[in-house]
Write a structure and sequence with these properties.
Distance between the termini of chain A: 38 Å
Shape of chain A: globular
Distance between the termini of chain B: 36 Å
Radius of gyration of chain B: 14 Å
Helix content of chain B: under 10%
Largest interface: A-B, 27 and 30 residues
Largest sheet of chain B: 7 strands, mixed
Strand content of chain A: over 45%
Oligomer: heterodimer
Helix content of chain A: under 10%
Chain lengths: 114, 116
């Protein structure tokens, strides 16, 4: 039973345009969400996060939106750059339970074309 | 500044063999975990630990064993390797508590395991 789902395995966008990566979750008890980026042959690295008490968080070119009623979050990258080409994982946790446990989605491979 | 170090980076095993994947972190993180990455399945949690002497199961614990005798080390043992355990394994660690960076996992570079 996949609690965190990324239904788009891949996404291709042109350099300079917006990339939108989507993520859905099923457990309404999740209260903290994160996005990770992974290049080939490397470990994932943290990108941006959002608490369930917010609906938006920005960090430079990256913005994460959270829609709790729809159990949906999205990552916007504007403008997209070729160096953004990577696999993006969303993750969810029970922050308030303090276990540190993260549940990841399947990942979306983003290709940004020059 | 080593961060999270995993060894070995590559390993080939025969079915039935046992081995240990090593993981060490030098950031004094309370939380450590093991994930496996498989195509189309994303990162799935195998086992995790919130401190020395404390471990718990994740989503896919069968066939794996862990222990946490020190804050720094969290080895993953494959008791009797099976082809289904062919995967890329990642160790990750983080702080616990309510401060900044909570929940942000720091990952090692991964260990690619092939079971024949």
């Amino acid at each position: 039973d996949q609690q965190v789902k990324q239904n788009s395995p891949s996404l291709s966008v042109q350099e300079g345009r917006i990339s939108i990566l989507n993520c859905d979750y099923t457990n309404s008890m999740f209260d903290y969400f994160l996005w990770y980026k992974k290049y080939p042959a490397e470990g994932p690295t943290f990108l941006i996060s959002i608490s369930s008490i917010k609906d938006k968080n920005e960090d430079g070119r990256f913005t994460v939106f959270l829609n709790k009623s729809a159990k949906h979050l999205s990552l916007h990258i504007v403008p997209s750059q070729p160096g953004d080409s990577a696999v993006y994982f969303c993750a969810a946790s029970f922050y308030s339970s303090n276990t540190g446990k993260l549940i990841f989605g399947q990942g979306t491979t983003l290709q940004v074309k020059p | 500044n080593a961060g999270v170090t995993q060894t070995p980076k590559f390993q080939v095993l025969k079915t039935g063999q046992s081995m240990t994947l090593q993981c060490a972190q030098d950031m004094n993180h309370e939380y450590m975990s093991w994930y496996r990455q498989d195509p189309g399945m994303g990162l799935r949690l195998i086992h995790y630990s919130v401190g020395a002497g404390i471990t718990d199961q994740g989503e896919v614990p069968n066939g794996y064993n862990v222990s946490r005798s020190t804050t720094e080390d969290f080895p993953l043992r494959l008791l009797s390797a099976a082809p289904s355990q062919t995967s890329v394994y990642f160790c990750a660690s983080s702080y616990l508590g309510q401060g900044p960076n909570t929940g942000e996992l720091f990952f090692g570079e991964g260990s690619r395991l092939t079971v024949l």
